[in-house]
Amino acid sequence: PIRQNEDHKAAETKANEDIYVQAEPADGYSALYAYFNSNLVYSSEALKDSIQGVETVSFVINADGKPEKITIRQSLGEPFEKEARRLIENMPMWKPATLNGKPVPSQMSVPLTFQIQKVNVNR
Prior knowledge:
By secondary structure, this protein is of the alpha+beta class. It has helices at 2-16, 29-39, 44-48, 78-90, and strands spanning 20-21, 24-25, 41-43, 53-61, 67-74, 94-95, 97-99, 102-104, 106-114, 120-122. Strand 7 and strand 8 (102-104) form a beta hairpin.
């Protein structure tokens, strides 16, 4: 009988735990990165300085699956920040995070890689 009580307590505890599901791109991460790769534009002013690197962008995916509160965490400079913001603002829809089945805002972060040889140059 003791074992049954323990099982019952474990089930009771699970029922009281919050179930959180992380936000994710509606079409998956591979589609999101494909969007970044094909839409990232390397500014001509940055090109002449041959600046390359990774810019880390944080943002909140709101309960509607849209990005807001975009913050540049690791900046390569002003032209890159503008491009990173444009990319995040226009990226495909996300499935918002959920807490117990209800959509909730969630903090996300993505790295954007700026490499001269693989980007579209804005002339």
